[in-house]
Amino acid sequence: MDTTDATSQALVIGGSLSGLLAARVLADHWPQVTIVERDELPDGPLPRKGLPQARHAHVLLSRGARILERLFPGLEAEALALGAPPICWSLDSATLLAGGWMPRFDSDLRSFSASRDLLEWLVRKRIQAIPGVSFVTDRAVTGLTTNGDRTQVTGVSVRRGTEAAEEIAADLVVDASGRTSRLPTWLADLGYGQAEVTTVNAGLGYATRWYAIPDGWEADWKLVLIAARYPDNPRGAVVLPVEGGRWVVTLAGTGGMLPPTDEAEFLAFAQSLAGPQIYDAIGQAEAIGPISGYARTENQWRHYEKMARWPGGLIALGDAVCAFNPVYGQGMSVGALAAELLDSTIRQSGLDALGRVFQKKLAKALLTPWQLATGDDFRWAGRAAGEASLADRLMHRYLARVFANFDQTDVIHTFFSVTHLLAPPTALFRPSILWRALKAKPVDTK
Ligand SMILES: Cc1cc2nc3c(=O)[nH]c(=O)nc-3n(C[C@H](O)[C@H](O)[C@H](O)COP(=O)(O)OP(=O)(O)OC[C@H]3O[C@@H](n4cnc5c(N)ncnc54)[C@H](O)[C@@H]3O)c2cc1C
Questions:
Q1: Atom nearest to 158 CA in ligand 1
Q2: C-beta 102 within 6 A of ligand 1
């Protein structure tokens, strides 16, 4: 694609992780890239209004870590130097799944554990250093501008508070404005109709508190992951170590069972978990902040790829297209996958067809993370989610047999390679795993 015209620019709506990663690849193709972000962006790893989820545990899957390192060589070393612990997911984590406590072994399933604020700040600094990339902050995009017959997006309208709207011209607009994106309304107003939306709501809620890791703390784990178990135990939790010698402790309730944000009940919930580690750990640690709740966690997929018409010069990605139940830790890594896909699509496709081609490719790439996130969630969601597909139901029965072999490290390694988005789900059907699964007595996953 020829985007060498010095006046041409790509514009990204939303300066969170998906928007930043998109800007990183757009800067290889456009002389100017502008990111419009509603918030003022802090000069440091600090909270901001448009990122309330940063208070909660954020797991970076191995696939996401690898893509980030490819896009920003040295990023991981920078995070580690600032105190983010390196993580080997099969060795460092005390993990309780339907198959029981996972045996621990060294492997290539690695990433690092930074707070969401630190990760975003490290990425933002890299983007700010790219010539031709600029930020317009404290301004919200309020709509798309188009050519006369509305077939081509020509830019956006932006507004600061109650000031008059201004227009910014762009030959490509990328919507990365997250789960509450207004793109569906903007497209409907332009006469494109409504995108079909699929929602699977497992009724998950989080309650999170940060703690200082006690001096001299020793345990046989760096982090703890306890999964809910359908249908009788909706309680799960994670303890993640992050920079600054802190733990992020997120308690999770599924099926509408929101974990409490009251101190005594928070502790009681931790005590009721299927393993003692988390309650023991926080009993010895000093809390360094309030307890924050979060409940907007349904899986939500806007099927832009199915729309009969799509304007030229428009792309949507990240949570704005598909937001996941966060318990599976996929959102940032899927945003990273989308950026890589955007890069390869730009290399192959002309600007006219770019949006349509990209949305279709993205939909294909979303199938695996969507299946991973909704497989169990369909059961928690009950009738409201509709019927799980035959493939999902068969996968469930099969996984119950795979879980029965969770004492075997090659099986666990393959399972985690799939959940860390490094291998396709078909890897679980390799003959050596299939054979043992078929011989096994399925674990009771109802
Ligand atoms: C509680 C919780 C826990 C999570 N845990 C994990 C995890 O463990 N691992 C993981 O990988 N992911 C996790 N996620 C998902 C992860 O936070 C997101 O996938 C990630 O932030 C990337 O999202 P995004 O950039 O697409 O959208 P967002 O992060 O939602 O960012 C959207 C941005 O757009 C801006 N914006 C919105 N509207 C406008 C507008 N009109 N004009 C200008 N700017 C606008 C917002 O201010 C914001 O900065 C979690 C999410 C939640 C809610």
A1: 42
A2: no
Nearest-CA residue for atom 49 of ligand 1:
16
For the chain, domains (ranges, CATH) are: 9-56+118-198+299-373 (3.50.50.60), 75-116+201-294 (3.30.9.100), 387-439 (no CATH)
Q: How far apart are CA 299 and CA 170, in angstroms?
A: 31
Residue 214, C-beta contacts closer than 8 angstroms, at least 6 positions apart: 284, 285, 286
User: Which pLDDT tens digits describe the chain residue by residue (446 residues)?
Assistant: 545 465 699 999 999 999 999 999 999 999 999 999 999 999 999 999 999 999 999 999 999 999 999 999 999 999 999 999 999 999 999 999 988 999 999 999 999 999 999 999 999 999 999 999 999 999 999 999 999 999 999 999 999 999 999 999 999 999 999 999 999 999 999 999 999 999 999 999 999 999 999 999 999 999 999 999 988 899 999 999 999 999 999 999 999 999 999 999 999 999 999 999 999 999 999 999 999 999 999 999 999 999 999 999 999 999 999 999 999 999 999 999 999 999 999 999 888 899 999 999 999 999 999 999 998 888 888 766 677 778 888 888 899 899 899 889 999 999 999 999 999 999 999 999 999 999 999 887 66
Q: Please give the single-letter amino acid code of residue 42.
A: P
Using a 6 Å cutoff on CB, does residue 68 contact ligand 1?
Answer: no
C-alpha–C-alpha distance, residues 232 and 123, integer Å: 41
For 185, the enclosing helix (H) or strand (E) is: helix 183-189
CB of residue 15 inside a 6 A radius of ligand 1: yes
Among 38, 300, 333, the mutation site with the greatest number of ligand 1 atoms within 8 A of its Cβ is 38
Ligand 1 contacts CB of residue 18 (under 6 A): yes
- Give residue for tokens 């101190």: 263
